[in-house]
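Apologies for my clumsy wording, but could you write out the amino acids of a protein and the tokens describing how it folds?
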Amino acid sequence: MDFRPVFMVIGILLSTLAVMMVVPAAFDLYDGHPDWEVFLISGGVTLFVGVGTALTCRTGGGRMMARQAFVMTTLSWMALVFFASLPLKFSELNLSFTDAIFEAMSGLTTTGSTVITGLDQAPSGVLIWRALLQWLGGIGIIVMAIAVLPMLRVGGMQLFRMESSDQTEKALPRAAQIATAIGVIYLILTGVWAFAYWMAGMKGFDAVAHAMTTIATGGFSTHDASIGHFNNAWIDYLAVAGMIVGALPFLLYLKTLQGDWTALGSDTQVQWFLTTVVVIILVTAGWLWMERGSEIADALRLAAFNIVSIITGTGYATADYGLWGAFATPIFFFIMFIGGCAGSTTCGIKVFRIQVLYAAARSQTHQLMQPNGVFIPYYNRQPISDDVIMSVLGFFFMWFFSFCILALALGLLGLDFLTAFSSAAAAIANVGPGLGPIVGPAGNFASLPDTAKWLLSGGMLLGRLELFTVIVLFTRSFWRG
């Protein structure tokens, strides 16, 4: 295998990360905080490694093949996490190497789990760096979903291949142009939400940081109490809208701007996602109203915010939903797995895979009742090939197998059942908070043993890269070619 194209891409990504470190350095310098030197030195080291790697491997020509893309995807995320952790490790927060890696992994994978306490007093450089990591991770996930995963045929993503013989199916002529256009949309949406948060009552710094982590469905906040710190209904509803915007396919936003005004409304994945969200919000709000005596408006606000936050994998919180009773806890546990739409910044299994399995199961049921009939499963009014169904079935198996192994490993370390299972789900689904007093919305992951943090960091990477992208590297046949 020719590794030169792989390392050239990694070098370019590291160089971009290094340039971004100037932003938190500027904030700390403005505040007179000494961490600005840490960010500049870390940025200098990262830039040296990135530029050196890119220049050394620039002679690697030719089109990147699938095997190289598998290696590039996993190695690039690992390299970015390592260098992104350097300022966290050497800042005045004095995080251990394990904690710095955990925080950086949680940021770039837009998980939102944290080991940092005292965010209200933390320096502005660290706070904006955490938000930047999630913002960069969000756009990286979108590009990966439209350019890399369909080519690698991971978990049924070949449904979203852009290379079509029908030229009208292409939003723009080349994948690079599509990625650029989506990047511009991503930036504009972030700016819109920053302005809206500011108008709703946030300070400018908080508005920018939360806009980045809202559109990226990341969930890092500048306060220990998350969005609940502001206790503002307008901010809550703005966050709900922003998380839903981040959970829809960004390619459909592009098609809408190009004049296809029905692109979003006619997509069955979007219809399923929005319907699921509305139904679960109404059920949860009804539970809060009937069982806990909440006012209808308060019940809807609490349910809408926290349900959307967890189902999209954002991880913001305005209340400790673990205290809402026996019915609410399983709801929050199960919706961790769902996630949003393919081609969005969200996490989890993704709605389209549930649609594919439902269509396949429905066809199988009809086949059992009418053995001589021919029943074809459909997705978005297009027939689903057996290849896609097998990919999705394989993904489901590996997803839940990995979840079970991670949960059992955490249990072996002495974590209680609720903490172990909800932490494993939160990591693989890239949700952020788990359930219970330790890792729930009112706690964080700081008290977990280092081994558990490394396991959870691995789970975040697995979940973010759709499992097979990482797992295939551990097979003997992959390296045999």
